[in-house]
């Protein structure tokens, strides 16, 4: 071993694994350093991947040739497409995973990726010369050199666990924290802060009365995360269960508020707004007499269950007393209590859109170190950081995502332009172009770009080309096939639908909310023959084709809006104006422009506190 690498990735969580595999698959000699090789891809909190907007991120990662979707499908024990009652822009895939199998799949992936090496150790210092990264030093006294370093430290930087009044230093339960990096980075001029997250207790299924709960089964259809037709769900599918807290539960919880780290001053950092602890729920939503809980399995061969919705750092006995008042949990046995964790993060406005730091060349941050929360947000950042670390090492151009191109693009632009004042979580509402960023078409949006980059491989690209060809043929048939009233009216009459007075194109029938391609195939033999001849992933092709037809007006309108706003993205700004000398814009605008140093007029327009008038003045100063 010469301990010389192109890229070193620090931390083997969701961001680190994705970053390391991405860089290695692009051809960089990559080292992944982890404190524990038995915890690669550990699901620190809930045993699930995806959800609202998060599921779209995972499909984007897969479309790019990343690994998270593949690992999730192979470890899935329940899959559901959320928000099916809403339009397809809101559909979000979510999967329960077997926690142990998930880590095993990630371990197999990183262990068998060419160009990727592993080292078990703790990084305690960065090697920096002339504001450029040169490598790292470890707790074991090893010096490792690299052209680029990606920090994906998760919750380990100065991590502190809270179990009621009991405080334990650690990055996760039973795992040590990491020290030294925060202090060094602050000495180099980086602004750091503290955040808090938490997790519920884990319980023994043998002590749960599932008969008192509502069963929630998964979907039994073709949907999954990976676009590859060779990746399947392999494990037994399991149910989740729903129950609710009640007033007695809340009364037991209130008894512990005086000893709650969140309310007695013990925790001073900010927690996630959209995944609050149960004690925060009963204080913030004091008028609600019940809160929904999801009882989720941790694995096919395990009795361990996760109580989603009951995150807490209250004392153990308070947690136990409260849970025993919940229907179905009267005789509950715990494996371990819930806890909160505080950790260091760094203001993400100190990053470029490539996730490279502005202060130190070739140093990248990805994941919770940037103030985000969630496996999916972390993995998306890891993928982008891995790409750009490789590009920097080999003379490639910077790679970024547009806001109209991916949820990853929305996430990163929000982070580096707006910063964070609480743990950032992705939602569909954060994307102004969500009809363009659907979960069904991430491969259509991103795979070709990734193939040109060298990340998506030939088999994935050929699969995309086949799907495009099949979709184009189906769309052409539907838009050109003429339907006569005599042919279709008996079918419409049987379903109590308005009959045709004149002939029309098949496309016009599919525009009806009550009708879909599969429905009409029952009445039109030529359509049935057409869909029966689709050889590659027919369900995906048909679903995405139907969405394109039914929502074509909305899709075209968003494309037009995005194209107009692209003009602002094409106007470079960084380094062209001395903001201190511009008195015609507000003091707040000058301060924020100097802090963020936006790359383009488009990015400047998205900075909070920058008004449309400020943007117009900048355009005038640029002579535009």
Layout: helices, strands, pairs:
Elements lengths: L3 E7 L3 H13 L3 E5 L13 E3 L3 H10 L4 H7 L1 E7 L9 E6 L1 H13 L4 E5 L2 E7 L2 E7 L4 E9 L8 E4 L2 E4 L11 H7 L4 E8 L2 E3 L9 E3 L23 E5 L2 H8 L23 H7 L7 E6 L6 E5 L7 H8 L10 E3 L2 E8 L16 E3 L9 H20 L12 H12 L23 H12 L4 H23 L1 E2 L1 H10 L9 E2 H5 L6 H5 L3 H8 L5 H13 L1 H18 L17 H10 L4 H5 L6 H10 L3
Parallel strand pairs: 1-2, 1-9, 2-6, 9-20
Antiparallel strand pairs: 3-5, 4-5, 7-8, 8-9, 10-11, 10-19, 12-19, 13-17, 13-18, 14-15, 15-16, 16-17, 21-22
Helix pairs in contact: 1-9, 2-9, 2-11, 3-4, 6-8, 11-12, 12-17
Which labels suit this protein?
single chain, 624 residues, alpha+beta, FAD/NAD(P)-binding domain, Elongation Factor Tu (Ef-tu), domain 3, Arc Repressor Mutant, subunit A, 4 domains, seven-stranded mixed beta sheet, six-stranded antiparallel beta sheet, 21 helices, 36% helix
- Strand pairing plus helix content: what structural class? alpha+beta
Globally, the shape reads globular
Distance between the termini: 56 Å
CATH topology of the largest domain: the name is FAD/NAD(P)-binding domain
Over all CA atoms, what is the radius of gyration?
A: 26 Å
**Number of DSSP strand runs:** 22
Instruction: Provide mean pLDDT, rounded.
Output: 95
Short synopsis of the structure:
This protein is an alpha+beta fold and 624 residues long.
């Amino acid at each position: 071993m010469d301990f010389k690498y192109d890229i070193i990735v620090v931390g083997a969580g969701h961001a680190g694994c994705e970053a390391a595999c991405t860089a290695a698959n692009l051809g960089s000699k990559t080292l992944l350093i982890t404190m524990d090789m038995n915890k690669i891809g550990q699901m620190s909190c809930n045993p699930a991947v995806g959800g609202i907007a998060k599921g779209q991120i995972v499909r984007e990662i897969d479309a790019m040739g990343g690994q998270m979707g593949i690992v999730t499908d192979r470890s899935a024990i329940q899959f559901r497409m959320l928000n099916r009652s809403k339009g397809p822009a809101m559909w979000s895939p979510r999967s329960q995973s077997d926690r142990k199998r998930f880590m095993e799949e990630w371990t197999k992936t990183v262990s068998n990726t060419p160009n990727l090496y592993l080292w078990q150790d703790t990084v305690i210092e960065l090697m920096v010369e002339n504001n450029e990264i040169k490598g790292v030093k470890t707790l074991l006294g090893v010096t490792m050199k690299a052209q680029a370093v990606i920090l994906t430290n998760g919750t380990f930087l100065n991590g502190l666990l809270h179990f009621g009044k009991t405080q334990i230093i650690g990055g996760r339960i039973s795992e040590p924290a990491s020290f030294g990096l925060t202090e060094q980075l602050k000495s180099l001029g980086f602004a750091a802060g503290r955040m808090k997250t938490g997790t519920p207790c884990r319980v023994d299924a043998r002590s749960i009365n599932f008969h008192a709960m509502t069963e929630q089964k998964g979907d039994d259809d073709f949907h999954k995360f990976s676009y590859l037709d060779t990746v399947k769900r392999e494990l037994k599918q399991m149910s989740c269960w729903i129950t609710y807290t009640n007033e007695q539960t809340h009364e037991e919880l209130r008894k512990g508020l005086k000893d709650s780290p969140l309310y007695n001053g013990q925790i001073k950092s900010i927690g996630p707004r959209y995944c609050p602890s149960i004690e925060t729920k009963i204080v913030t939503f004091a008028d609600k007499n019940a809160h929904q809980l999801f009882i989720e399995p941790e694995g096919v061969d395990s009795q361990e269950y996760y109580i989603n919705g009951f995150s807490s750092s209250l004392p153990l006995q308070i947690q136990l007393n409260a849970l025993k008042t919940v229907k179905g949990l009267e005789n509950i046995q715990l494996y371990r209590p819930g806890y909160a964790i505080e950790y260091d993060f760094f203001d993400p406005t100190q990053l470029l859109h490539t996730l490279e730091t502005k202060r130190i060349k070739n140093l990248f941050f990805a994941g919770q170190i940037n103030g985000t929360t969630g496996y999916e947000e972390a993995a998306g950042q890891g993928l982008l950081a891995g790409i750009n670390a490789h590009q920097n090492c080999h003379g490639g151009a910077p790679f970024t995502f547009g806001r109209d191109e991916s949820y990853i693009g929305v996430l990163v632009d929000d982070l580096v332009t707006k910063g964070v004042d609480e743990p950032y979580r992705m939602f569909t509402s954060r994307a102004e172009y969500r009809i363009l960023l659907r979960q069904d078409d991430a491969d259509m949006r991103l795979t070709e770009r990734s193939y040109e980059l060298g990340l998506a491989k030939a088999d994935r690209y050929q699969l995309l080309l086949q799907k495009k060809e099949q979709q184009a043929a189906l769309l052409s048939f539907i838009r050109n096939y003429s339907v006569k009233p005599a042919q279709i009216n008996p079918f419409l009459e049987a379903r109590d639908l308005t009959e045709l007075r004149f002939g029309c194109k098949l496309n016009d029938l599919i525009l009806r909310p009550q009708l879909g391609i599969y429905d009409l195939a029952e009445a039109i033999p030529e359509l049935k023959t057409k869909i029966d001849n689709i050889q590659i992933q027919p369900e995906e092709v048909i679903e995405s084709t139907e969405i394109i037809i039914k929502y074509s007006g909305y899709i075209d309108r968003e494309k037009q809006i995005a194209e107009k706003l692209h003009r602002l993205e094409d106007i470079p700004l960084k380094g062209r104006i001395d903001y201190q000398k511009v008195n015609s814009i507000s003091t707040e605008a000058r301060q924020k422009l100097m802090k963020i140093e936006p790359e383009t007029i488009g990015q400047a327009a998205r900075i909070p506190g920058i008004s449309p008038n400020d943007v117009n003045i900048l355009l005038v100063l640029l002579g535009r």
